[in-house]
Amino acid sequence: MRERRPGERIDYQVTHLEMRAPPAGPLPPLPSGPETALIWAEKPPADYFLYLYQAVGGPWEWTDWLERPRAEVEAFVGDPEVALWTLMVDGWPGGFFMLDTREPGTCDLAYLGLVPRAAGRRLGPWLLGTAIRAGWQRPGVRRLTVNTCTLDHPAALGLYQRLGFEAVARETRSRVLTRPRGAA
Hints:
single chain, alpha+beta
């Protein structure tokens, strides 16, 4: 596998997934070990969202929001139909998820992830299961959507599918890398 360098244009696959009914099974268990809390952010500042976005997404080429005008970021984060939840692990932000219900009948799991230091502790399945249940509790939701890509964590697609999402579309996109990484 050849290392890809910053500035190199690469192609990657995006998978769009959806869930048409709430999950029937139990919530994946919260692993023992770290002290955890899940905190909803009421009217979070754009800087807080961007901090979490970079802390979680930096290794995975999450750069889109960093390039958008500040007013667009503030409008997204400040929209009452967008909810941000932070996973606290031993007192520090270990991850987050965002639910976007601006499209009637749909809850989009806009973002979900763990910071690198929290990865590998089995928190991901619990966080995703919690996000799914929170999405279904939003008023008027008839389907949940999410997308992932080959730039994201290698386990992301499988985890979404194991917890009930089904792939509905795939597309190829390209981008210029901002950091070194293995071949995509």
